[in-house]
Amino acid sequence: MAGRYKVTTNSIRNLIIEQFKDDKSIRTIGKLAKVSHSTVFAIIKRLKLRGTVENALKSGAPHKLIPRNRSFIMHEIEKNPRLGTTVELSEENFSLMKEQESYSWILQNPW
Fold first, then answer.
1. CA-to-CA distance for 30 and 40, rounded, in angstroms?
2. Would you kindly state where each structural domain of the chain is located, as residue ranges?
3. Does the pTM exceed 0.85?
4. Which residues form a coiled coil (predicted)?
5. Is 16 in contact with 29 (CB distance < 8 Å)?
6. Helix H segments across the chain?
7. 83, 100 in Cβ contact below 8 A?
8. Which residue has the higher pLDDT, 34 or 74?
9. How far apart are the C-alpha atoms of 12 and 41, rounded to whole Å?
10. What is the mean pLDDT of the chain?
């Protein structure tokens, strides 16, 4: 399923900034770049606020497991259900996770 909005490319953002620095109006820039004037205004506002028009880094803690390790754990548990939430499984294969809560969470939410 596609996203709800069209992503503005960096080249269009840079074009908008160049035109803005040449003292063109927001509506004129919108017509030149073929985007709405509200998009132009948002890009200019971002430039003034952050000093750049690049996408911001996403915040939040990194995942403890990459999807490959998660699928490995699920595969091993499917092969041998007695493993359950034991810590032995990850200590043998990767030293990323040693918390019982994480294993329980993987079992409840496999994907």
1. 6
2. 10-50, 67-108
3. no
4. none
5. yes
6. 10-21, 26-33, 37-50, 67-79, 88-93, 100-108
7. no
8. 34
9. 13
10. 78
